[in-house]
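Methods: example folding runs. The two proteins below were folded one after another, and each record is reproduced exactly as written to the output file, sequence line first and structure-token line second.
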Amino acid sequence: MQYSIVNFSEFKADDFRIDAEYWHPDFIENAHLISPSQRMRDFVSSDVLNIKSTPLNRDFAYLRSSQISPRSFEYKTTSVQLGEEPEQAYYLLQKGDVVVSTVMPDRNAVALIKTGGVVGSSDLAVLRPNGIQPEYLLVFCKTAYFVNCLIRANKEDLYPAVSIRDVLDTALFVPSDSFEALIVKAVKTSIFDINRSKQIYAEAENLLLSELGLTDWRPKSRLTFVKNFSDMQRAGRIDSDYFQPRYEEVVNAIRNYPGGSDTLGNLVTFKQCAEVKTLEDLEEGIPFVRANDLSPYGITAEKYISKELYAETQEHQPQKGEILLSKDVTPGIAYYFRKRPKRMIPSRGILRLKTSNDKVGREYLTLVLNSILTQEQVQRDVAGSSLMPRWRSDQVAAVLIPLLPKEKQVEIEQRLSESFRLRNGSQKLLKYAKEAIEIAIKQGERAASNWLESIRRNHSGQDKTKTRNGTYYAN
């Protein structure tokens, strides 16, 4: 049995929490790691404009908390036209702002804003650094200490959420100049590496598109066009979206490619993944991968199954060299296992693909599946479907894949390998920076700095990434 003895004087008048969970010994121990004398609000500016009181009168990029990756610091925005502003669109963000999701604090979605003019949703806490480096603040907000503080502050069971005040009231581990510089350097190197990774990935994709004469092609829907009745008979569909000329342009470019093409069904074998009707409400365990957990760069599972359920479904365990491809909810997202994957079970909304011949390389095929070539075919197939898009297995098998010459595929795959090497190194750097702050919180900066130095020594002479200033960081 665990229990806590709490003095009545410790109860705050403005937040009178008497629930046992709030006073759990683990939370109390976590709260005592840092002196509350210096809080987050003491190092950020409160001067953050919002579009309700300061209208933009222009189109803008919009960021919601759900668009921030919990696995990294990356985020996506959506374009919003003037007059169509979502109700939640609120904060006018600046370059260098750190944003923290106030919903589902255990998910720990945190991002560093890269450009100004982005509008953030009202479920974000905006930290505009004042007297501390944004890179340090970014990593601090990913530490176990910070996450536990927000989980403790949560007052809702059904829909976990905290207030902006909860974020600002969190005690901050204020670093010395030298320790802060170490963290900032690691983050900046990581950002440089991830940007370079994206650039190289784009180069690989451009090599593919240039072979098909689609380098500058952009999808554009037409309001009117003419199709023959025989086309509708062959397709077995009459919805206009399916026959948008943009889809035909892509398919014709693949079909007419001099090197030839083939259907995905002829190039791979398919395996259906597991159907788990009832998921256990577990906070940890073996990842259960759903379709929307996939990205071309990784897997972020937020649901777990027990060892017992895994034993019943382990025939669906992915293997090295296989490709996972989503067909439901977010159809057409592919991820390739370059290494032997950890234990996991993909959901029924995902297909396991294994190449059945040597016409295509695995990494090349994964790039094609994630490229605009396949994405346009996916959009055509699921056009007019319900709010829950479903890509049928026969439609997946019919996807056209261009067969580039082997030497061109190898050239593309070399770029992809370099891109993922840089991405993995970038993620490790951020992980090391986070762990260094966690060590500093518990053991002091000297121990954290020594740990970082040991990491550098252990990885010297191994796989390294060289930055612009000649500094090496281990991958």
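Second run, written to the same file directly after the first:
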Amino acid sequence: MKQPHHIVHLPRAYPSKLAPISSIFFKEQVAAISQYDNNIKLGVIAIIQKPILKKIFFKNSHLLFSTNKNVNRNIITWIKYLFTIPLPYRIKRQYVNYRLFLLFRKYVSSYGKPNLIHLQTYEMGAVALKIFKKYGIPYIVTEHSSNLYDDKTRLSHDFLKKIYLNSRFNIAVSPFFSDYLTSKFTIPFTTIPNIVDINKFTLKPENKSPKINLLHVAHCVEIKQQKLLILGFTEALKINKLLNLTIVGDGPELESLRALVKELKVEDRINFTGSLDNEAVKTQMHHADIFILTSKKETFGVVLIEALAVGLPCISTSSGGPEGIITNEGLGLICDHNPEDLARAIIAVTKKRYDPVKIRQHVVSTYSAAVVANKITNVYNDVLSR
């Protein structure tokens, strides 16, 4: 009788006691694969890093020497907490890689050798290469990291290419990102998107108010371009006085954004909520009419498919990943990176009648757990049958 596949995921981060929703899409992908094929054996081995000098260490010092181990149906999760001191990047990276490799060896002694490693981004690539050299276990890569756009990886181009060249199959999360990586490394990448939880992000109720509620959800950092969002919204407000904007998120740019709103005298039309959990974000989406993302660069744009899943038309700047999501005008519009074109897109979307049910159906048929898990397990079967 054929033994079920045993696949171990090595993500760059994972939800943990210190950050329950950090990189939650990695966990959602593993859960989707598990539900799609309950005969598959899945392992997750993750290192959670926190600076030792932060206050969080003193509150969580009991985690320092522990490995959180959990077995849930066919998923085995091992999470190791590392509190690190300030060190040069290369030394710190070598230390983290060493600890992850030791953790993998302990996992193998408990559960046996996996058939395949699924590397989630390049960051643990050195460990995957070492595992392949020592154990002969092949690996595949799913690439998510926007650092690859601007060479902010702190790894050389040659070493990144070595990671992808030795991989049995390379995946990127959007068509634009796949094309970009294929061109950059002259190695083929295939698109398999991220997953949306269609049971969590449900169809929104009809809005009978004359007000038009716009929603933006993102960390308040420069790359998300909330200043552009505010300027574009203010221009659109001059044309349509029924517009309101809610900005969900926290971060280093938040105070300057509040100051800009005050300077533009639109405090009564723009609301900042700060950071919210997933359930509260869903509630905001149910109260919204249009969703807007204004990033400089996006490898994918998970929040867009979440918004589409509740039936919201979306507007996004041309930033890579979103062009593979908003693929027709029945889903929304792509605009340029200037306030005038963003305002034009806002006004255009407010004038068009969208079908929330059709928007959601598109998401279900493209990004649901069953659809994406099927594509990933097909890759596993193909790689392991060679």
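Comment on the second run: Residues 89-111 form the longest helix (23 residues).
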